[in-house]
Amino acid sequence: MDLPAAERLPWSREAWRDTLFVLSGAPLQAACWTLLALPWAFWVPERAGSVLSLLLASCAAALALVRPLTRAHRERAWAVLGRDLPVPPARPGGLLRALRAEDPRRDLGRELLYHLVVGPLLGGAAAAVALAWAGGAALATAVFWPPHAALLIAGLTLAGLALLAAAPWLAAGVRRLDVRAMAALLGPDRARELERRVEDLAGKRADVVDAADLERRRIERDLHDGAQQRLVALAMNLGLARETLTDVPEPARRVIVEAHEEAKAALAELRDLIRGLHPAVLADRGLDAALSGVAARVPLPVTLRVDVAERVASTVEAVAYFVVAEALTNVVKHAGAASVEVAVVRDGPTLRVRVADDGAGGADPARGTGLAGLARRVRSVDGTFRVVSPPGGPTALTVELPCAL
């Protein structure tokens, strides 16, 4: 956080905090190069193979130091600044496993970039901060030196005061650079974090879609086994009464007839509702049987082709079923078509659904003909939805669904 100028005075707590943070990082930032150079102190030119062995030893020592240095920098940020830097995912299996794995290797490369390139540069900046404080303090006391030329003493004193005034700003700038570099190179990879979040959200969305499908199935089963059976019994009893009670007064008979018709209408509506939630035949016998039943109820010639050798995920089956059912309903209500062709084909990992009619065309999802709802349902399982419907027809609705969620 940037602080006002009053808090950047040389004697302020923030100035000393930034200076402490910058100077405490300098030994850590020089550690990797120190380890790389240290084995060369034992180099014996006359010994064969000593160069290669020393090179391997120095590189191994630097690699072994990467993790401890990263932890030390993270602890430094917390102890001095109170800044908690996110920890990247652990690399299981040790350093060799990390070098072989693709994703952990990206983390290791970022850490090496900090410790071998960015860190030493920041260490040089830390040396400049130390020089500004030490040099400023030394020059600011020139007024107390043995007498010399007054103008030289005044100039040195002013230069020292200027260095002391600039040192807190320099320390703050180096601190900001160091914190940003650590967050970018020693913390989690933001691109990978976004990928993980997208995967997590996709998994959660798939769980929600599956849960909604399971809930629809539960409601369908409860209605089928409960309310529908009661309505069937009621309609049968009223029908029996209608047929047998012929000697009752006409007003009573009329009430029985009306009740019987209402019970049959309610039963038909309930069956349509159950079929709209999740038809039992779809779960029991698959898309071919379920869509054959849908096509048989359409008052138009329907050419149906279902080529799904292996059943797909139940949620995808449900989406494909409702796409065809809603599309056929739209054709009957709005298209004025003479015939419809329906094709459901599995092509590897993709289930393709196509509904084409020879009607008047002009279908537009934006006009609320049920197509917008279908598009949302298709997108809920990462499918694609496309309608080609020029004025005058024909209309072709094409949907592609992933077979597995």
Automatic annotation (TrEMBL):
Organism: Actinomadura rubteroloni
Species lineage: Bacteria, Bacillati, Actinomycetota, Actinomycetes, Streptosporangiales
Transmembrane segments: 20-42, 48-66, 112-145, 151-172
GO molecular function, one term: ATP binding
The protein's Enzyme Commission number: 2.7.13.3
Keywords: ATP-binding, Kinase, Membrane, Nucleotide-binding, Phosphoprotein, Transferase, Transmembrane, Transmembrane helix, Two-component regulatory system
SUPFAM superfamilies with a match to the protein in the record: ATPase domain of HSP90 chaperone/DNA topoisomerase II/histidine kinase (SSF55874)
Gene name per UniProt: nreB_4
Domain Histidine kinase/HSP90-like ATPase: 315-405
Stated name of the protein: histidine kinase
A cellular-component GO term for this protein: membrane
Domain of life: Bacteria
Pfam family, one: Sensor
Catalyses which reaction(s): ATP + protein L-histidine = ADP + protein N-phospho-L-histidine
